[in-house]
Every structure is written in structure tokens, then in C-alpha cells.
Sequence to fold (146 residues):
Amino acid sequence: MGYIILEPGTEDELEKYFNLRYEILRKPWNQPMSSTKDEWEDKSIHVLMVDENNEAVACGRLQLNPNEEGQIRSMAVRDDMQGKGLGTKIIEYIEAKAMELKLKNITLDARINAVKFYEKNGYVIVGESYLLFGVIPHFKMEKILE
Ligand SMILES: CC(C)(COP(=O)(O)OP(=O)(O)OC[C@H]1O[C@@H](n2cnc3c(N)ncnc32)[C@H](O)[C@@H]1OP(=O)(O)O)[C@@H](O)C(=O)NCCC(=O)NCCS
Fold:
């Protein structure tokens, strides 16, 4: 596989990263580009996967919460690349980073369509969460790190 995982830093990498988040997580629900970023960007480690043509194919971020807790957010894989294991590679990168930082657990709010994906990666449902855009139920999930 000619895929590379990087932490976006250049203007070009950051643009590709935020565009992918927007395209997959916001645009289908007619949300504005401005809704893509939140107040936690500076407290997060951003992860982007590009293909051999340097096109963005997958991304995610590890938000650093208080009390040595990590939170996975903004997980997105390009439509035509879903179900090929790329999302799992992003999770593995994020978890390795979390271990390196000695975080105790990783929490996340999973869209209902993504619950199975996180379960396959060892996360368990710990409760119900919010309703996004009035239509997407979320479940709070967690994984304790060794
Ligand atoms: C959810 C998402 C990040 C998963 O990434 P992915 O690259 O498609 O997932 P993977 O190929 O790594 O899947 C790993 C496993 O989870 C399963 N899986 C993935 N998405 C699934 C889904 N929607 N329903 C059921 N199982 C799913 C896969 O079948 C695979 O299992 P296998 O190893 O037995 O084949 C990606 O599909 C996506 O961006 N979806 C749209 C946006 C979204 O919902 N993001 C999550 C917001 S919380």
C-alpha cells in the first residue's frame, strides 16, 4: 500500500486534512465549512493519511483531555476508500501516540453507523450520547489503555 500517515503541519497538509473532515463529516448534512473546526484544535494531535498521489484518504485526531484522558474525534475515511482498513490504521496510530503520552484511557462519541467499527477496534459502549444535527444518534465509547 502506498499510504503514508503524517501529522499535518504545512499549509497544504492542513488544508487537505480539514477539507477531508468537512467533506465526510459535515458537507453531507449541509453544514457550513466553519462548523468543521472547534475550540479543541490546539489541544489535539492531528493525523492524516495520504495516498501515493499525495491525496488525503483518511484522518482522525487525538484530543488531549484533562486527567490523562485521550478522545478520538473527527475520524473520516474518503467515501470510496471506506471498508479497506484505513480507519483502523488511523486508530492504531492514535493509540500508539496515546501510549507514548502515557494516557490512561481513550473515550469517543461514535456516530451510530460507526459503532461496529469502534467495537472491532476494542472500544465498548459506556452510554448514550448526543444527537448530532438533530438526526445522528451517538454512543459514548471507551477503551482502557494497558
Ligand atoms: C467509520 C470509518 C472511520 C471507519 O473507517 P474504515 O476505514 O471504513 O473502517 P475499516 O475498514 O478500518 O473497518 C474495520 C472493521 O470495522 C468494520 N466496519 C467499518 N465500518 C463499518 C460500518 N459502518 N458498519 C459495520 N462495520 C463496519 C469493517 O467491516 C471492518 O471489519 P473487518 O475487519 O471484520 O472487515 C469510516 O467508514 C468513515 O469515515 N465513515 C463515515 C464518517 C463517520 O461516520 N465517521 C465516524 C464518526 S464517529
Residues 24-25, 75-77, 82-88, 110-111, 113-114, 116-117, 120 surround coenzyme A (CB under 6 Å). The chain has a mean pLDDT of 97. The first helix runs from residue 11 to 25.
